[in-house]
Structure formats: C-alpha cells, structure tokens
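Structure tokens please, single chain.
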Amino acid sequence: MLNILHENPAFLVVNKPPGLTSQPDKTGDDSLLTLAEAYCGHPLHLVHRIDRPVSGLVLFAKTTEAMVLFSAQFQARTVQKDYLAMVQNMPPKPEGTLVHYLKKNQAKNTSTVYDEEQPGTERAELRYQLLDSSKHYHLLHIQLVTGRHHQIRAQLAAIKCPIKGDVKYGARRSNPDRSIHLHAWRLAFDNPATGERILLEAPPPEEVLWQALGPAKEGWSMFRKAGN
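Here you go.
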C-alpha cells in the first residue's frame, strides 16, 4: 500500500519503503512507479528516483506540463533535497562540505570516487551535519548540491563513513532486509501550477535505530525549528 504524503492535480509525492525499486527494472519486481500508476489510474512521470535499498520521498508528475516544469527546477538546482544517513564511523568534522569527482561503473552499478577531475567523471558536492551519535552509529543530515549516481553512498564511503548496511560501499555487514540506513527525508520545490514553495517531510522507517537517533527522538523539535 502506498504511503502518500501529498497529492494534487499536478503531482504526487510518496514515501517509498526500502527494498522497492523506483521504476521497473530487469528483475521484473513491482516498482513504485507501477504501483503509483495503478493508484492514479493513468501514466505518471517519475521526476527523480532513489535507490532500491533507500527509503523516502519520491516525486511524480501527473502531466507532461508539470514534468517539464519540474525538470527545469532540477536543472536550475532550485529543488532542495535533504537526506538522513546513519554511518558507522564518526566523520572527521561535525559538519562540512564534500567535493569529489564520480565515475559510474555501469557493469558493477557503482560509482568510483576521485579527489581530482578525471576523464569521464562528474563533479559531486554535498553538505553534511552531525546530528546525533550512539555507541556504534552516527546520524548525519545531508544536503545535496548535485545529484549523481550513488553520490551520498560513494562520498561518505570516501571519508571512511560508510552507511549502515551498505556493503557495496564498505559497510561491515548488510541489514537483514538488505536495506541501507539512508532516507530521503525532505524535499522542497515550487508547485508547477501555482509557483508556491512546498516543503515536504517523510518519517524514516519504523526501525529501532531510526527511532533511537532519528526524528522520533526527543530534541529533534529544536533542530527542526532552527530550519536546518
């Protein structure tokens, strides 16, 4: 069953569970796109996607006109995308900006990280902030500046902070359900019909670690009121 966070005649926003693909792939498994189209009763446009093991906000345009306007916003980088990531190691600084150059390996479905520009690479930039820590894990708030293949996963691994469960990028062990602790938490964009600025927020999965360090924990109200 779809967890719909917002719907109007122009678009639909869904909180995707981990383990579900954003769009159909070679596995033939159900995808969020096919489920959303079945719900709406007509074709949809997938504005952006998140990886199968990742949870969180996914935006669909209901019309071609809305898709064109959303694409222009992404091109102009006026769409704000915020993630929550649970990592195994403390980052070198409590907050900072990471800039790398990524090259996608199509065969392995991974991205290789370089410190300097190389042939075939794309510049990748994100900002992070340490929010909370437990004995074994640390919660980061991630703001994407660019949107590259596996960007958050690859860049955090490059600073020796692999995401919990992400064995593809250096985590010690996988999660039992093959998810990773990366959540597309907030999305801000302009309504293509009215121009109104919209900010949507998706709660992370109801899982022990997310409940211990995530938005359900006491004290998050201060963080959210501060507008971070």
